[in-house]
Design brief:
Blueprint lengths: L4 E4 L5 E6 L5 E8 L13 H8 L10 H10 L3 E6 L4 E8 L3 H14 L4 H19 L2 H14 L12 H6 L2 H11 L5 E7 L3 H11 L21 E6 L4 E9 L8 H12 L5 H9 L6 E7 L4 E10 L3 H17 L4 H18 L3 H14 L6 H10 L2 H11 L5 E7 L14
Parallel strand pairs: 2-6, 7-11
Antiparallel strand pairs: 1-2, 3-5, 3-6, 4-5, 8-10, 8-11, 9-10
Helix pairs in contact: 3-8, 9-15, 10-11, 11-15, 12-14
């Protein structure tokens, strides 16, 4: 299942090759080990802004219209994304057109102009993107939760930056950041799908054009919580978005997959415990989800929901009850099997597409420093026992580690007594 090979090129860049004979498409992805955690207060948001600028023109393709027109003519899908610890760029196209797609993407990443007029114009676009997130509590609550966890540090700042930093950037800021973070250090390249030796040869030539760079590392997260924490953001809405969770472990920790399964049992499906209790039994929410996040140096598990203003405390109580229940009573073998089958099924469904396969390996290459195949992950999933999940719940669902983020017509001070398992 998705066998892969890794070639280390002459300039040190790892090239991940995932050939799929039956596929009709191929995806090329460049993943850089840099993101908002690699920023400081002055340049907060520059990773995301720079991602936009790679689509604004090169020496050979002088503007956005030329780049997008050429990519559209290949019948391709193309995009980019910025996270806390990585920034990725990809093109997915029919296998016969992957080589011209590679050349366009390589040109964008190696020869972008970073035109001053385009920078000024894009500031308005990104400010509106920020407004869009802030106006949607269920999209923005994750940022509020991470701010609650990590405070005034790069790990706790919004990836997009602030309106002040966005509007302050000059062309030289982008050039300096590009020279430091975009080069052979921290770059992984992934090619997945129906690929040929000729495709690989072209990609290797493009990869060898990347030069050595400084690459400044991020500030490491320091975990130091001794009591429950609450953060609220006031927003004039008819609903409260909440996120209630705990600190866990970094990616690659032996508990990683067990925590994913614990989240799945709690709120990862329409038959999960919290979905049934919050939505089906009590009618408190339309949206309910328990999720995990694993960074290279930290992680968390949290439950998100959108609930009525006058029912927030009840929703919090129910979530805490389910956290406590799963730590006190071992889940049944039937429920465990269902969770394993669901996790395996979600993986299989996700990894049918070549862009998702490329993303699977790219994110691991950056965060783990290596990649696990889906088959290796499935092997570890099968080993998980009901007692493992109970032990994890006892370990992490403790009062001193609770964090609650709220967005809506609320004040954090009104919820100080709510975060208790008593």
């Amino acid at each position: 299942m998705n066998k892969f090979k890794v070639r280390i090129l002459k300039n040190g860049i790892p090239l991940y090759l995932i050939p799929l004979k039956e596929a009709k498409t191929a995806t090329i992805m460049f993943m850089f080990k840099t993101g908002s955690k690699y920023e400081n207060r002055k340049n907060s948001g520059i990773s995301h802004f720079l991602e936009h600028m790679f689509f604004k023109g090169t020496k050979k393709r002088p503007d956005t219209a030329t780049i997008s027109s050429e990519l559209d003519s290949l019948g391709s899908e193309f995009n980019a994304f910025t996270g806390k610890e990585y920034t990725g760029y990809f093109v997915k196209t029919v296998a016969s057109k992957v080589r011209p797609a590679m050349k366009i993407l390589g040109d964008m990443l190696l020869n972008s102009l970073f035109d001053e007029k385009e920078i000024e114009r894009e500031k308005g676009v990104i400010v509106e993107e920020l407004n869009m997130y802030e106006d949607n509590p269920l999209m923005h609550i994750e940022d509020v939760f991470e701010s609650c966890l990590y405070g005034d540090t790069p790990a706790g700042w919004d990836t997009i930056g602030t309106k002040e930093t966005i509007r302050s950037f000059k062309r030289q800021d982008f050039i300096d950041y590009f020279k430091a973070q975009y080069g052979t250090k921290g770059l992984s390249i992934i090619l997945a799908g129906k690929i040929s030796t000729a495709d690989i040869s072209v990609l290797e030539k493009i990869a060898l054009e990347f030069k050595d760079n400084v690459w400044r590392d991020k500030l490491k997260v320091k975990e130091s919580q001794t009591k429950p924490a609450i953060k609220s953001v006031f927003k004039a809405t008819d609903q409260i978005a909440l996120s209630l969770g705990v600190r866990t472990v970094a990616i690659g920790h032996p508990d990683e997959l067990k925590l994913k399964m614990l989240a799945l049992v709690l709120g990862g499906s329409m038959s999960s415990r919290l979905f049934i209790r919050l939505r089906e039994r009590n009618g408190l929410a339309y949206f309910v989800k328990t999720m995990t996040e694993f960074y290279s140096d930290s992680g968390y598990l949290t439950t998100q929901a959108g609930v009525p203003i006058d029912k927030v405390k009840e929703a919090v109580r129910i979530i805490l009850e389910e956290y406590k229940n799963i730590s006190q009573e071992k889940i049944s073998e039937v429920e465990l099997k269902k969770a394993k089958d669901l996790l395996a099924g979600k993986m299989a469904l996700r990894l049918e597409a070549t862009d998702e396969i490329a993303s699977w390996y790219a994110r691991q290459a950056v965060l783990r420093g290596k990649a696990l195949s889906p088959a290796e992950v499935l092997k570890e999933i099968k080993k998980i026992k009901a007692t493992d999940l109970q032990k994890l719940a006892k370990k992490f669902f403790v009062e001193s580690s609770l964090n609650l983020a709220l967005m809506g017509k609320v004040k954090a001070a009104d919820f100080k007594t709510v975060l208790s398992f008593r």
